[in-house]
Design brief:
Layout: E1 11-15, E2 18-21, E3 26-27, E4 33-34, E5 44-49, E6 52-57, H1 69-79, H2 83-101, H3 107-133, H4 138-142, H5 149-172, H6 177-198, H7 208-222
Antiparallel strand pairs: 1-2, 3-4, 5-6
Length: 223
């Protein structure tokens, strides 16, 4: 120890292979003491190397950011499905969600959920339109027979009006009034059958036009 009343700093040699400095209280010659400023005292973290615990100064590491990658990963996987599998997963996922959350949904939430479902169905229908124009059956493209008679019958009833309307639109730019009325009626029946399958046990007195209106209004509010 020095005898000229100077502050003492004790140094310790290797700890776990590292030269460490221990900063302690520094006492003055008049028996009054003072502490090192907090900013000068480094934080200490402990880590282990085998049976030896080593203490070292902690570095300021940035906090790890977490991202919700689950939804993106699921959408990426979903995009690789065939259209038939997408349709199947869509119905199953909405149906399971409704079975779990349905009793907790108020009328407004249910209308929004129903509109989102119909919007997703419309995206799938738009995707299969080229195949329908080439003569393929909607029932086959979507695998409607697996979901019961009501959907299978509604899909068959939609086939001809849908194909004729799409061909007329392709030829002259828009379907005639009669074609439009025919496809709207068939589409409404098809959508009602889907709603009855997915949201079974809850009244679904709407078809394509009303449900799509709800979905559009929801999107506008979000914008």
């Amino acid at each position: 120890m020095e005898t000229n009343n100077q502050p003492v700093e004790k140094k310790f040699s290797k700890v776990g292979g590292k030269l460490c400095t221990l900063k302690t209280k520094i006492f003055s010659s008049d028996s009054q003491f003072k502490s090192l400023p907090e900013e000068e005292i480094p934080q200490v973290k402990e880590y282990s190397t085998g049976e030896t615990k080593v203490f070292s100064e902690a570095e300021d590491a940035p906090k790890e950011k977490t991202y919700s990658v689950t939804t993106i990963r699921e959408r990426l996987r979903y995009a690789k499905y065939s259209m038939r599998m997408r349709f199947r997963r869509l119905l199953i996922d909405y149906k399971k969600f409704y079975e779990m959350q349905g009793p907790r949904l108020d009328d407004e939430d249910f209308r929004i959920l129903r509109g989102l479902f119909v919007s997703d169905i419309m995206n799938i229908m738009n995707s299969i339109t080229p195949e329908v124009l080439r003569g393929k059956q909607i029932n086959t493209l979507l695998g409607l027979s697996a979901f019961g008679k009501e959907l299978r019958v509604a899909g068959s009833a939609l086939q001809l009006p849908y194909r004729l309307a799409m061909k007329e639109e392709e030829r002259i730019g828009a379907p005639s009034k009669k074609r439009y009325q025919d496809i709207q009626k068939a589409y409404n029946e098809f959508v009602k059958a889907l709603l009855n399958y997915v949201f079974k046990g809850r009244e679904n007195p709407v078809g394509l036009t009303e449900a799509m209106g709800t979905a559009q209004a929801t999107e506008n509010q979000m914008d």
